[in-house]
Design brief:
By secondary structure, the protein is α+β, with helices and mostly antiparallel strands. It is built from 16 helices and nine strands. The strands form two sheets. Strands 8-7-6-5-9 form a five-stranded antiparallel beta sheet, with no helix packed on it.
Length: 419
């Protein structure tokens, strides 16, 4: 339970979950912290008249009800946010039509993706060199990405498939940003909140630039000491963006808490479910999903279908069940960019989903039944590909890894240009 406590009544051992003002207007790095000692208590008193203290994480020797000025807490920010998200999703139309086709949006998406990739590389390079991040430029990039996603989310979904294992960090950050924007669109978030969500996702791993390269790119399991250092990247990220300029509190929280998990097993603070903001949790789901499907120096990519299975397995323990359900609805059974084999032996890549028929997306056929690469790929719409009797003619037999059948990301880029 959360209690309102006057600043003069604070004691070491209390867990401060909320302030009487936005976190961004305070000097505190963490959203939520244990009061370590009297000096730490004095720091809070200098800023706040009162705070909210969470009993679960407070020293049990402290009798909070006898100290609190308001034993009945108001709804937490997280509860209000969750209710707003549910309201958005309940009121959204059954299916938000794309305003343009993927072929119409593809050239714009390619340019936006290229510009954003260049900006991401610059931002990470500057952070590694100890220079600040251009927050204004990052905002502009996210706004451009948002507009493309709003017109047709599948176009940028294609582009985010093109990742190089040796450029994982910056490609991953951009992919997570795009995926998060697509997720936010699915949730019917207002555009301004999409911008904040996207900016947080865009910058979520900026703190990794303070991690030594030999740790960041190590092609093997990290030692306990190396993993401890890796787990500091959220704190480093907040330090970098705070020094670079003013960012919304939502953005700072995403950067700091995107590795927190419902059961308290996450880092850097080990927050429980009620202390993780829903928008931060959305980025955490997208971050995990993209990490699973991406090729790394030390692991092969896992199919999108398998990644969805993993998320579904962890719903309720690591991830919010309702948000996982919404995410799976968003990406579909066979997300855009999934390489699949049909029942007739053809191999192709999912171009776009059929919302009304999730198991029957539109597939760009790249390899014929004989295993030969096609010079002219063509699109097969599995939802309308039927026999004269109205039965399905073709269906997906199973999903494949990105480089199955000898296909590479370079091949995918070539075929994308021909859609």
């Amino acid at each position: 339970m959360e209690y309102m406590v006057n600043a003069e009544d604070l004691k070491p051992g209390m867990y401060v979950s909320r302030l009487d003002r936005p976190w961004l207007e305070s000097p505190f790095l963490f959203q939520g912290f244990i009061l370590r000692d009297e000096a730490h208590v004095r720091e809070v008193r200098e800023v706040c008249e009162y705070v909210y203290v969470e009993s679960i994480h407070t020293d049990p020797a402290i009798n909070l009800p006898s100290i609190a000025t308001a034993p009945a807490p108001r709804a937490s920010d997280n509860s209000r946010w969750r209710n707003r998200l549910k309201k958005f999703t309940a009121e959204r139309p059954p299916w938000r039509r794309h305003s343009v086709s993927i072929s119409e949006e593809l050239s714009t998406a390619r340019k936006v993706h290229g510009d954003s990739s260049a900006l991401m590389r610059t931002a990470l390079d500057n952070a590694r060199a100890g220079r600040g991040v251009d927050i204004k430029a990052a905002r502009t990039a996210v706004e451009d990405l948002t507009q493309s996603v709003m017109r047709n989310p599948d176009a940028l979904g294609w582009m985010s498939k093109l990742k190089d294992e040796h450029e994982y960090t910056y490609k991953h950050s951009l992919s997570v940003c795009i995926l998060t924007l697509v997720f936010g669109r699915h949730m019917s978030l207002p555009e301004e909140e999409l911008h904040q969500l996207g900016l947080g996702a865009f910058l979520h791993d900026i703190g990794k630039m303070k991690i030594p390269m030999e740790v960041l790119d190590k092609p093997a399991a990290l030692t306990p000491e190396e993993f401890t250092e890796m787990k500091r990247h959220p704190e480093y990220g907040v330090e970098i963006v705070t020094a670079s300029g003013k960012v919304p509190d939502t953005v700072r929280d995403i950067i700091l808490s995107h590795h927190e998990r419902m059961d308290g097993s996450g880092y850097p603070q080990g927050l429980g479910a009620e202390l993780i903001r829903p928008m931060t949790h959305m980025v955490a789901i997208c971050d995990t999903y993209d990490a699973i499907v991406s090729k790394r120096p030390y692991k092969k990519p896992v199919s999108a279908v398998r990644a969805v299975e993993i998320l579904n397995r962890e719903r309720g323990s690591l991830f919010d069940p309702w948000l996982v359900d919404q995410f799976i609805q968003c990406v579909g059974v066979y997300p855009v960019g999934t390489l699949v084999e049909l029942n007739n032996g053809e191999t192709g890549i999912v171009v776009s989903a059929n919302r009304e028929a999730r198991l029957h997306p539109r597939v760009l056929i790249l390899i014929n039944q004989e295993g030969e690469r096609l010079e002219r790929p063509f699109v097969r719409d599995l939802a309308t590909d039927q026999t004269e009797e109205g039965n399905e003619r073709h269906h997906i037999a199973h999903a494949l890894g990105e480089e199955a059948r000898g296909l590479t990301t370079a091949d995918l880029e070539k075929y994308m240009s021909e859609v």
